[in-house]
Amino acid sequence: MSPVTQSFRGKELKPSESLKIDAFSVRIGDIKGVELDRLHALSLSVGWPHRAEDWHFLREVGQGVVALDEIGRVLGSAMWFGHGDSFATVGMVITSPRLQTLGAAQWLMKRVFDNVPGHDLRLNATRAARRLYLSLDFQPEKTVYQCQGIARLPTAGSSAEAGSDVRTLDASDIPAAIALDAAGFGVRRTALIERLFAHSHGYGLFKNDKLNAFALCRPFGRGHVIGPVVAETDADAVAIVRPHVADHSGSFLRVDTHMHDGEFAAFLSHAGMPVFDTVLTMSLGKRLADFYTGRSAGLKTYTLASQTLG
Ligand SMILES: CC(C)(COP(=O)(O)OP(=O)(O)OC[C@H]1O[C@@H](n2cnc3c(N)ncnc32)[C@H](O)[C@@H]1OP(=O)(O)O)[C@@H](O)C(=O)NCCC(=O)NCCS
Questions:
Q1: According to the model, what pLDDT value does residue 25 have?
Q2: Helix (H, G, I), strand (E, B) or coil at 25
Q3: Ligand 1 binding residues, C-beta < 6 A
Q4: Any bridge partners for residue 64, and if so which?
Q5: What range does the domain containing 83 cover?
Q6: pLDDT digit string (tens) for 265-304?
């Protein structure tokens, strides 16, 4: 293709094949002051499935910073979600491809540290981000399996055992769900679970009228995500995830789980959600095991609320 030529005062000008663009500077901003469309464009630029509504929800339940250029374009983001006064999860750490490997993510993470000083932090690192977090002293903990696909209800697999009953949750179940989530996650997440209830459909497994396990499911990305799921056993986790699979049979469903073996993991793959990718849970400060010391093995977080929220 021949380059377009222009003329100036009778002389023909041929543009050069390359153009040097000056380095530009970025400033920090509060994520709450940015239009959702701009955040959505940022996550699309790195191939993430979040919709504008997903960003909206994350801003309702968390805080964050953005890197802005001179004309207000969003070139980077980082968010944190505090629970209590000494713990937070970190997520939505993104730098636009044209800004990558120049230290912007390091710079954004330092702004996160300034905002949650002395907190124990947990996050789920993509492969691209592992080196960044290792350099910030985060310690690797466990693999997260991102399982997704077009849901289908397997014919085999446990339903609720005799003496237990699976039913739809309502607002009166929120306090019991918060308590179960705290036991599984290791930290009480009152405000988050309340907000998730407002956006989700939930099923609970009741034994003698007491909530023993629950699974929430909400719209996210390309379809729906099931999480969190908190249960004592694989069989209970399957019993409360199964009705969500039935509800979304034939459409896109996703689950992020630490479980790799056993009945629950097998159920996901039979339900049309094989492992699509993995990320790595990492922590700074208290290690994952420190949150469970002195507790008997019991309730477990079978699926995350999301990779961002933990
Ligand atoms: C992961 C991501 C946030 C890193 O952002 P970034 O602005 O490139 O990171 P920085 O320039 O601050 O680099 C931080 C560290 O990672 C290293 N690094 C960055 N990109 C790298 C690459 N492609 N290969 C190897 N190392 C790399 C840097 O050298 C630096 O390491 P150092 O401190 O040892 O020198 C960015 O690549 C991104 O947005 N990726 C897509 C979304 C994503 O995966 N986000 C992470 C969510 S957990």
A1: 87
A2: coil
A3: 46, 93-95, 99-106, 125-126, 128-129, 131-132, 135
A4: 79
A5: 27-118
A6: 999 999 999 999 999 999 999 999 899 865 656 899 999 9
